[in-house]
Each structure stands twice: as C-alpha cells, then as structure tokens.
Amino acid sequence: MADLTQNPSRVWPAISGALKTPWAVIVALLLAVGILDSDNFQTIVTFAIKALAHTGQYILFAVLLLAYLKATGAEVLVARAFVGRETRMIFLAALFGGLAPFCSCEVIPFIAGLLALGAPLSAVMAFWLSSPLIDPPTLLITAGALGWPFAIGKAVVAVALGLFGGFAIKALMTRGAFAQPLKVYKPAGCCGAGPKQDEKPLWAFWQSPERRVRFRAEFVQNGLFLLKWLALAYVLEALLVSYVPADLIAQVVGGEGVLPIVTAALVGMPAYLNSYVAPPLLEGLMEQGMSAGAAMAFMVGGAVSSIPAMAAVWSLVKPQVFAMYLGLGISGAIVAGIVFQMV
Questions:
Q1: Mapped to the 3 state alphabet, what secondary structure does 110-125 carry?
Q2: Contact 215, 67 (CB under 8 A)
Q3: 43 vs 20, 235, 248, CA distance in Å?
Q4: d(Cα 22, Cα 329) in Å, to the nearest integer?
Q5: CA quadruple 273, 275, 280, 286: dihedral positive or negative?
Q6: Contacts of 169 (CB under 8 A, 6+ apart)
Q7: pTM, whole model, 2 decimals?
Q8: Gap between the Cα atoms of 323 and 335, Å rounded
Q9: Which of 309, 313, 314 is nearest to 268 (CA)?
Q10: 3-state secondary structure of 55
C-alpha cells in the first residue's frame, strides 16, 4: 500500500489493466442487465453458472492432465509422436472431433493443451472445426427432429469441414504461415522454448520438489486462464439466448436458392443456439419454408462461429489464426449448405 501511495503513477496502469480483463467485462455486462432488465438478471446468471458448472468437469480434467504432462516432462513424447505424421493426424483429428461430446467452448481446454504441447496447428484446426458440430447425443436429437438423412449429413459435414480446414492450414504452413499460432501470453510457460530432446519423463513427478512446484503452477495458472474466458463465453451465450428472438431468425432465412444459405450461415454466427436447441427450432423453420440447405448452413455456422466460441478462440491464438478459423467455418458452412441442398 505504501508503494502505491508513494508512486501514484503505478496505480492507474494497474487499474486500467484490471478493467481490460474478461472478469471486468463480465461484471459490466451483468451490471447492465441488472440495471436495464432486473427481472431477467437471475435467469442470465443462472444460465451462465449452470453452463460453466457443466463445462467445469472438462476444464478440471484438461487442466489436471496438462499439468501432469508438463510436470512429468511427457510433452517430449507427445511432441515426438506428431513428427512426420501430420496427414494422419489431420484425418484422426477430424474423425475424433466428430465423435467427441464437446461443444465449441468445452473443447477449448483440450485445444489449449494440444497447442501448448506442440501438436501441429493443421491437426488442431481439424479437430477444432469438427468438434462443435456433432456428437452422439446431438446425432440422436438431430435425427429425431430433422430425420436421419439430415443427421448423417451433418456428421459427414463435420468430418469434411475438419479435413478441409486441416489441409488448408497445412498448405499455408508449408509457405511459412502460422509459425507461432499462440498469443504472446503463455499460461504457466506452456509455450516457452519447448521441450528438451534429451529430457526424460519422470512419471512419478511428486518425488521431485521442483516438479511438484511446476505442477501446482501449471494447474493454477492454466485453470484461471481457461476459467475467465469460458465464464465470459457463457455470459455472452446467456445474453444472446435471452435477447435474440427466434422469430427474427425465421424472418431472415426463409426462401429458396443460394442467398438464403449464405444468409443463414452469417445469421448463425451471432444467433448462438447449442446443438440440443437448434434441431427443434430448425424443424419449425423448415416447416415454414426454410430450405434444407439453409438449415444446414445455419447449424454449421452457428456451432463453429458463434460469439461464445469465437471469444474462446480469440483468447488462445493470434488474430491471423482466428481470422482463418472464422473464414474456414463460414465458407465451410456455405459450401455444406449448397452441397446438402443439391443432394
């Protein structure tokens, strides 16, 4: 306290930095809801807390796993496993992404771990694009609301989009692009100088005081890093679900042709709907005249490029990687809608 009083020039930068954090944005958004729409405040907060609590199990598992790998030095083995196998990894990542039961925000902890441990960005992008689109529960819900052809089509689109994104990134990386995909901020040194080739893993890391300290540091810093961004993502989701009327969406994406497909893909970005809510809504929209292609584009665009998902992606990677993710997601949604409409 004495130092701050004697050096007032240090106070404002500290306050200014705190105001730019995700926590400050969350507080500002919730205060705005409390002032402007107090009746809906509890609903917004409850929605965000429940969603974050549900994701918490994935965060905990991912952070524990990453901390363990870093403390043991196992990232050496992980890094070596990816050498010379990029094409195979792209295929596996796209397929696994279509089977993993993670939404666009729940997958972020695993993406952070993969990038931090040196996985190729091409394979990570394949997983990143395919994972929000389909999982076993979503497949059944989609089939129940829209039929098995639509559900199977969405699963195929998920894998195809992952492959499209993975090989696009691979082609660009051969020309020198995306050499350093992560942002400058590195949680707990995950993206430091990299593992030493002659280092050997110590699986019983608790036997080493130095590695125990590393484990705690990794766990705390990575956990807080992911928690703050996912908390912001779910507050944004709660606001969007509460204040973007479904009727407005129905008025914009009706009709036939390519234009409704493009419009549906773009509208799907801000109109975030999770994979369990979207199929019943799209069933009603299709009964009102929405084409199957527009419905597919809306679902793909909404899952891959929703505001909560983009907020989480933005927290991890540099702007050029974020722009590529967004471009691949939207273009893939449009192409998927056009192809599905033709089929």
A1: HHHHHHHCCCCHHHHH
A2: yes
A3: 26, 11, 21
A4: 25
A5: positive
A6: 121, 122, 125, 178, 324
A7: 0.61
A8: 18
A9: 309
A10: helix
**Cα angle 197, 85, 304; round to 5:** 110
**124-168: pLDDT as tens digits:** 888 888 877 876 667 777 787 788 888 899 989 989 999 999 999
Sequence-distant (≥ 6) Cβ neighbours of residue 226 within 8 angstroms: 59, 62, 63, 108, 109, 112, 187
Q: Residues 215-272: pLDDT tens digits?
A: 898 888 878 877 887 788 778 778 867 886 656 655 666 666 788 888 888 877 665 5
Q: The tokens of 42 are what?
A: 């509890």
- Residues in the chain, overall count: 343
Burial (CB < 10 A; 0-12, 13-18, 19+), residue 242, is middle
Nearest to 183 by CA among 127, 236, 112: 112
Q: By C-alpha distance, which of 298, 266, 305, 306 is closest to 165?
A: 305
Q: DSSP string covering 265-295, please?
A: HHHTTTS---TTTHHHHHHHHHHTTB-HHHH
Domain ranges of the chain: 54-342
Catalogue the long-range contacts made by 315-318 (C-beta closer than 8 Å, 24 or more residues apart): 315/22, 315/108, 315/183, 315/225, 315/229, 316/108, 316/111, 316/112, 316/115, 316/182, 316/183, 317/115, 317/181, 317/182, 317/183, 318/180, 318/181, 318/182, 318/183
For residue 117, which phi and psi values (nearest 5 degrees)? -90, 5
- Tell me the DSSP string of 179-221: SS-B-S--GGGTTSS---TT----SSGGGSHHHHHHHHHHHHH
Measured distance CA(112)–CA(225) in Å, rounded: 10
